[in-house]
Specification:
By secondary structure, the protein is α/β, with parallel strands linked by helices. The protein contains eleven helices and nine strands. The protein folds into two domains: about 60 residues; about 190 residues, Rossmann fold (3-Layer(aba) Sandwich), CATH 3.40.50.150. Helix 1 packs across helix 2.
Length: about 280
Amino acid sequence: MTGAEAIRIAVADLAGAGVADPSRDARRLMAMVMGLDPSRLTLHLHDVITDQEEFAFFLHVQERCKRQPLSQIVGYREFYGRRFQVTPAVLDPRPDTEILVEAALAEPFERVLDLGTGSGCILLTLLKEMPGAWGLGTDLSGKALEVASANRAALGLDGPAVLREGSWWDAVEGGPFDLIVSNPPYIAESAMASLEPEVRDWEPHLALTPGGDGLDAYRLITAGALAHLEPGGRLMVEIGFDQGDAVAAMFEAAGFTEVRLLPDLDGRDRVVMGNAP
């Protein structure tokens, strides 16, 4: 069987399972089992695959048919031009989160805190893009920090990036900071059942929802942020598409100035940011 023949079978299986882009995912899985960069797969589609490659390919196709995220199967996700390890212990880095990164990089910083760092994609990207800066990433999940630690080592950031386990401000040391960022759990408990299976069934619920109305993390973050920020320092958080007004009001009530909303790629509110007085 050639790679192209196997992909045709896989596309039909994936489409039947409701996978959104079955052709793309089948090609990514084939590239993985053939040991190729996805950009080179086309050159080898008509190569005959080995029995071992065929077995591994269709095994991974069945995993994807169960709606396991592609990134968890291949083991990584591209984010801001770099490859980050992904496991079921962390959220899959998403393109919309790059908006927060772009906003953070719009001004220089020396000390950055990432609350709920997960895979480390935000913190580590910021430190790679801002040489000389130091950063702390915290997370309640030890397994998430293992992933972040692996990504830190892969990017050569063992020096400037520190990781600590703990709940929100309890894990913070080394401040004050001139930048605090967070992509906290923000999905309301009532909305969890309507999520895509890739998210609802495979990503860590601890990183998806705080329960209730989904806003508890923002209440904690805004209540404690000024005590950990330099005067004029910045706080920015990623939010759900319908949470902009509520979170902006929390920033203002906490004493932040120049509070503003940034839209995502679809024009929906995605980031709230403000400055310490």
